[in-house]
């Protein structure tokens, strides 16, 4: 990831003027999901692009060194070598965008990727993931420890209480402190959109997160009852576009939570291309946070290459 956001001052005037036209957002979101998508070779190429943007994730209570190691090896070789060879893509260095784990598993991931001779970044969730309801002191310490253990990307969750009670200055200050604690590591800010109550709050929280120096804004933890949806994404990417127009700073976008199918991955790529342009189709500015998406993409690529659907045993586990 090369793009960095130094942040900007908190512009409360801008935040107070925010209005979202909900019916228009819902109409546009519907249109993106229902339209015909790319086919054949183009589809395979888009799916490979999606693979390079996946933050391959495991965030479970029963995570151990061994499943994290397996995930890292899958991140290094996300698609079977013979399938890539059949598409003449075997020497293109296709890997997942990052591996995403809990702070306590960062060392396992760093070790596994080092052993595999692979430079994929390790992303750690932090700041009291998923609820963000621990004292600020411990949330900050969690960020510092994850960085110390080798995380080069931090997926921090915001304190949703501050959004729901309109405390924009306090939200900005907290995120600024997380940004400082991240040091050289990139910061992705998870809004937990399913908890924020309205599209207007989501737009405002997106702006505050970007003003406070987030390199990415991310929809969800995957643990809320509603996670990445297209209406929410539209509001967030339009906030990214407005922030870029006003400051010249490019902030990335990461939908996460419940993204499971290749078809959905294609719709997410279409949304990025149409709303933000080709610059946002790269892992530097776009990630898909997903624990169970890669398997379906690999199955679709297997079908593209062989004309058959893969049996369960044909593809290595993600
Ligand atoms: O940040 C990533 C999400 O937690 C993944 O959610 P998921 O398990 O629904 O794919």
TrEMBL record:
One of its GO terms (biological process) is deoxyribonucleotide catabolic process. It is found in: Cytoplasmic granule; Nucleus. Transmembrane segments: none annotated. Keywords: Cytoplasm, Lyase, Nucleus, Schiff base. Pathway: Carbohydrate degradation; 2-deoxy-D-ribose 1-phosphate degradation; D-glyceraldehyde 3-phosphate and acetaldehyde from 2-deoxy-alpha-D-ribose 1-phosphate: step 2/2. Its main location: cytoplasm. It catalyses: 2-deoxy-D-ribose 5-phosphate = D-glyceraldehyde 3-phosphate + acetaldehyde. GO terms for cellular component: cytoplasm; nucleus. SMART domains: DeoC. Pfam families: DeoC. The active site is at residues 218, 254. Its EC number is 4.1.2.4. One of its GO terms (molecular function) is deoxyribose-phosphate aldolase activity. InterPro entries: Aldolase_TIM, DeoC, DeoC/FbaB/LacD_aldolase. Catalyzes a reversible aldol reaction between acetaldehyde and D-glyceraldehyde 3-phosphate to generate 2-deoxy-D-ribose 5-phosphate. Participates in stress granule (SG) assembly. May allow ATP production from extracellular deoxyinosine in conditions of energy deprivation. Belongs to the DeoC/FbaB aldolase family. DeoC type 2 subfamily. Interacts with YBX1. This is Deoxyribose-phosphate aldolase.
């Amino acid at each position: 990831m090369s793009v960095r956001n130094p942040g900007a001052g908190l512009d409360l005037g801008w935040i107070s003027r925010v209005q979202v036209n909900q019916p228009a957002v819902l109409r546009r979101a519907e249109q993106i999901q229902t339209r015909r998508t790319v086919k054949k070779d183009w589809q395979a190429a888009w799916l490979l692009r999606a693979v390079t943007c996946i933050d391959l994730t495991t965030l479970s209570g029963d995570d151990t060194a061994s499943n994290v190691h397996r995930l890292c090896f899958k991140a290094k070789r996300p698609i079977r070598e013979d399938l890539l060879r059949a598409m003449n893509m075997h020497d293109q260095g296709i890997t997942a965008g990052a591996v995403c784990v809990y702070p306590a598993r960062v060392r396992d991931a760093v070790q596994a990727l080092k052993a595999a001779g692979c430079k994929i970044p390790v992303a750690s969730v932090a700041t009291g993931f998923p609820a963000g309801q621990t004292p600020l002191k411990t949330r900050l310490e969690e960020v510092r420890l994850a960085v110390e253990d080798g995380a080069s990307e931090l997926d921090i969750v915001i304190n949703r209480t501050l959004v729901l009670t309109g405390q924009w200055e306090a939200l900005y200050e907290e995120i600024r402190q997380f940004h400082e604690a991240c040091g050289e590591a990139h910061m992705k800010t998870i809004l937990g959109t399913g908890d924020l109550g309205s599209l207007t709050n989501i737009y405002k929280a997106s702006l505050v997160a970007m003003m406070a120096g987030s390199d990415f804004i991310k929809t969800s933890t995957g643990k809320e009852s509603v996670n990445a949806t297209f209406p929410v994404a539209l509001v967030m990417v339009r906030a990214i576009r407005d922030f870029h127009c006003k400051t010249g700073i490019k902030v990335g976008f990461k939908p996460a939570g419940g993204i499971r199918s290749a078809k959905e991955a294609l719709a997410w790529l279409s949304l990025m291309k149409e709303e933000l342009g080709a610059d946002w189709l790269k892992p530097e500015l776009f990630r898909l946070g997903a624990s169970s998406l890669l398997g379906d993409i690999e199955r679709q690529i297997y079908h593209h290459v062989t004309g058959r659907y893969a049996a369960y045993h044909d593809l290595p586990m993600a």
